[in-house]
Amino acid sequence: MRNISDIIEHHLKNILQESPNGWIEIQRSEIADMFQCVPSQINYVINTRFTIEKGYIVESKRGGGGYIRIRKVQIVNKTRLQELLTEELIGESISQGVGYAIVDRLLEEGLINVREAALMKIATSRNVLLVDTELRDRLRATILKQMIASILLK
Predict the structure, then answer these.
(1) pLDDT of 68-92, one tens digit each?
(2) CA 150, CA 23: separation in Å to the nearest integer?
(3) N or C of the chain: less Cβ packing under 10 Å?
(4) Type and span of the H or E element at 10
(5) How far apart are CA 107 and CA 99, in angstroms?
(6) 0.85 exceeded by pTM
(7) For residue 18, is pLDDT > 60?
(8) E strand or H helix that includes residue 69
C-alpha cells in the first residue's frame, strides 16, 4: 500500500499531465482537505517530489489568495539539456540523492532505459565511491557529467 505522500504526488502529476497549458495552480489547504492531511504534508510532497532536478519549477504566492504553481520543464533539445544538467544542476559536486533524481528524470524522459539508469546509480553510489564525502561528491559529479554527455551525444 502506498503512503499519503505517494498518493498526493500521483494526484498532482495526473492533473499536471492533463493540464492543457503545462502547469497547474493549487491551493495547499484545498489539497490537504481533499486528502485529509495537514497542509505541511502538501509542502513536504512539493518540496521533495517536485524539484528542479526532477524536472519541475515550483512558484508560490502566499496570502489569502495564494497559490502554488507547478510547471513541468519541457526538454527542448539535447544540447541545452546537457548544459542545464552538467553546468547548472550538477556543477563541481553533487550528492547521491540529487544525482539519483537527475538519473530518474532522464529515465522518465525516455533518454535512458531502466538498465542504464541502474548502472548510472550503481556507478555513482556511496557504496562504490569509497572515499571521504567531499571527494565522493566531486567524483560523482564528474562521472555523471561524462555519462550524460555520452548518452546525449548518441
Answers:
(1) 999 887 766 677 677 777 777 788 9
(2) 31
(3) N
(4) helix 4-18
(5) 13
(6) no
(7) yes
(8) strand 67-72
The single-letter code of the amino acid at 143 is I
DSSP type of residue 62: -
Q: DSSP for 90-144? A: ITT---HHHHHHHHHHHHHTTSS-HHHHHHHHHHTSTTT--S-HHHHHHHHHHHH
Q: In which order are the strands placed within the sheet that holds 56-61? A: 23-26, 67-72, 56-61
C-alpha 68: how far from its chain's center?
Answer: 17
Do 93 and 137 contact (CB within 8 A), yes or no? yes
Map grid coordinates 555513482 to a residue.
124
